[in-house]
Amino acid sequence: MAIISRKPRNSSLRFQSFLGTSDITHDKPERSLVAGLRRKGGRNAYGRITVRHRGGGALTKYRLVDFKRTVRDVPGKVTTIEYDPNRNVRVGLIIFKNGAKTYNILPDGIQLGMTIMAGQEAEVKIGNSMPLGNIPVGFTVYNIEITPGSGGKFARSAGTSAQLMAKDDCYATLKMPSSEIRMVPLDCWATIGVLGNADYKNISWGKAGRTRYRGFRPSVRGMAMNPVDHPHGGGEGRSKSGSHPMTPWGKGCKGTKTRVRKNPLILKRRKDK
User: Fold this and answer.
1) What global pTM score does this model have?
2) Which of 100, 121, 128, 192 has fewest C-beta within 10 Å?
3) Is residue 89 a contact partner of residue 1, using CB atoms and an 8 Å limit?
4) Average pLDDT in the 217-228 region?
5) Which domains does the chain have, with CATH numbers?
6) Number of helices and strands in the chain (H, E)
């Protein structure tokens, strides 16, 4: 998918770019695999804002993507390639020989009409899912479970994958997209390949309105606030106020380590030299 730049007919189009849609084969989603999506505006069950700068945005319906690959040992055919407004990777409608239908996130190189399968004895090829213990060392995988049966949690966004570096009696060693190296039980399932739509990260949104369409509200810098509103506020002119970067509640941010208990399964943290 190529990145398409707009002709600068006005100032709002001058820096905008879009992803091409030539790969999309179907406009309307499968009705049986669509659910309503209730908006939360960054609020939890008590109505308190726990994630700031969220709200508004274009109305969307949620596609029920099968991250667990529940239909196993049955081959399925990729019948459509569709846009999903809730994620940055394409989804495909898979119709299996037993009549089941699921939505799956699609890797790079998958094409319309190809056959994929999930199973212990599945062939080691792009789009097939199996336990990490059955995947050869050196392969790249995505949609990786963190505990057996939990469904894929790692490497689910556009252009990402993890590399299977080693295996021992109980654990597989993975190099994650963040450069973190961690161990995952061999019974956890993963899918072979690298997720497509990698050019998504090169989009230039071009104007504030396109960010609002996605459900993100404006963010005000702490330095532009008063001291009563933020630790970075106040001062004559632009002032760093002599402190490390903080949240509005005085806790460290932007690189401050907050993990209290170390996870023994993480062999190398991201950003470690």
Assistant:
1) 0.89
2) 121
3) no
4) 93
5) 21-201+264-268 (2.40.50.140)
6) 1, 17
